[in-house]
Every structure is written in C-alpha cells, then in structure tokens.
Amino acid sequence: MNLTVIAYVIYLLVSIGLTVWVARTLSRNGRIFIADVLRGDEKLADAVNHLLVVGFYLVNLGFVALYLKAADAVDDTRSLFEALSVKLGVVLLVLGVMHLGNVWVLNKIRRRGLMDHRQTPPVAPQGWTTPAGA
Length: 134
Known about the structure:
Layout: H1 3-37, H2 42-66, H3 77-119
Helix pairs in contact: 1-2, 1-3, 2-3
C-alpha cells in the first residue's frame, strides 16, 4: 500500500477521533456554562448546546476533509510522520480556535445578560424628587 494512502487513513482516523472527543467534552462540560448564560433555562441550554455541537462538527469535519490532500508525496516513514504532524497540528489549532471562539461568544452573551440584570433597580421607584436648583 502506498505511504500517502496510509498517511490519509491515519490522518482521517486521528482527526475525526479528536473532533468527536473534543465535541463531546465541550458539550458535556459546556452545558453548565450555557445554562448559566441563559439564566437556568435548561431546555434552551440543551437546544443551544446541541446546535453548537452540530456546528462544531460541520466546521471541523469540513476543514479536515478540505485539508486532506498532501502537498508533497509521502515516500518514506520520515515524510509520513512529518506530513501527519503538520496536518494534525493544524487540526488541533483549528479545534482550539473553534473552542475559544465559542467561549468568547458565550461570555459576551453572559456579560450582556449580567449587565441587563444589574440595570434593573432592586425595588420599584416610589416617587420622584425635584432636581436641585430647579
């Protein structure tokens, strides 16, 4: 079997495995954060979490598929490991950037919700005062 084909198979197996593992880990541990962002609405948190996981799979697996083609032929074991390390390193970086992007967006939503919550007074106003000097 050609070493390039072996590199493709190893790349696909490891990349897909990493993508599934990261998505499951983020889904399981991120659900609590999403529920906090959405002020405890569990059904909405589950729905948003599921949509984020689906989007995560689509983007990452699409990138893995697009990045499959090797630039150079893989002629020996050394070039096999070099090609795999570059490709898997880039996939790991993309997974990390996707994760940080999700956390950043959710944190923005959470902060906006906290600011809206803090702007409401603790008690309803009971009257008006006239400004000083009027």
